[in-house]
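ok trying again, last paste got cut off:
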Amino acid sequence: MTGLQIVLGAVCAVLLVWLVVLIVADRLPNDYLYAALALVEVGLVAQLVVGLVMVGGDHGGVNVAAYVGYLVGSVLILPAGFLWSAGERTRAGTGVLLVAVFVIPVLFLRLHQLWGAT
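nice, full thing came through this time. structure:
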């Protein structure tokens, strides 16, 4: 795993705890949470660029289509979760954000598996 993935995974872990607290307290996400999500999204875009550069070089037989698909999927998951959550201003909407944030480290693990399979 890259250092960026580890940092983003750690930030996602903190956000997961934050979101669980919001769900239990039945409170809506605030601007600070949205700012943290935007920071993660910036990191995901950076990860996309790094991943595309890695695939453009010697990739040793990595399934490029799957690898790029996971990279692009990781960039799209937070905006999709945010839009869904914004339309559902209840505890369920916060749960959607929780799932979106949880999926990001899972996608990183899959990226690591794909890259390390060669």
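cool. The CA atoms of residues 21 and 60 lie 43 Å apart. The mean pLDDT is 90.
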